[in-house]
Amino acid sequence: MKKIGIIILALIALSAGIAFQQLKSTAKTETFSLSNIALADLNSTMQNLSQWQGKILIINFWATWCPPCLKEIPDFIRLQTQYKSKNVQFIGIALDNAQDVKTFSLKTGINYPLLMAENSGKKLAHSWGNIMDVVPFTVVINPQGKIIHRQMGEFHSADIEKILQPLMTVPLL
């Protein structure tokens, strides 16, 4: 019986590893249109993601009830300030209710757009590669519209900066 449990765990680990490798291998080849994605901001005004097309986008799916999400937000605030003039735009997509997000945003001073997705956000995140349906989940999209990085779980500022540096040396079209 113990051997069967070990075999099952090994198969689960193998499957997760294969899925992760597939996710990494396709990350640099997919281009997504942002023009058909519109979500409400905290004032209930619809915002189309295409308004940020041509920028380096760091789109973070998060929720106020998610401790790792809350832990990475201060870094996002600092990096948005640091890189705003270098064509970088953070966008938070909350899988949460608007009142909780408003309260948290006011308390923390989030300096980048927050959009509300609630249930539809899971579907969008899944279509962008969140195969495990976890939060936080973050994608980095280059100015040409290609997802160049997917991050399941907490995204550390040092890792973000490693991804941003080469993008900022590429001339914009």
Order of helices and strands: HEEEHEHEHEEH
* SSE class: alpha/beta
Task: Give a short account of the largest sheet.
Answer: 7 strands, mixed
Please tell me the total number of domains. Answer: 2
Summed over residues and divided by their number, the pLDDT gives a mean of 86
Radius of gyration: 17 Å
Main sheet: which strands, in order across?
2-1-5-4-3-6-7
> What percent strand?
15-25%
Task: Describe the protein's topology.
Blueprint: H1 2-26, E1 38-41, E2 46-48, E3 56-62, H2 67-83, E4 88-94, H3 98-108, E5 114-116, H4 118-127, E6 137-141, E7 147-152, H5 157-169
How is this structure best described in words?
By secondary structure, the protein is of the alpha/beta class. The chain has five helices and seven strands, in the order αβββαβαβαββα. The chain has two domains: 1-28; 31-169, Glutaredoxin. The chain has helices at residues 2-26, 67-83, 98-108, 118-127, 157-169; strands at 38-41, 46-48, 56-62, 88-94, 114-116, 137-141, 147-152. Strands 2-1-5-4-3-6-7 form a seven-stranded mixed beta sheet, with helices on both faces. Strand 3 (56-62), helix 2 and strand 4 (88-94) form a beta-alpha-beta unit.
Observed structural traits:
173 residues; alpha/beta; Glutaredoxin; seven-stranded mixed β-sheet
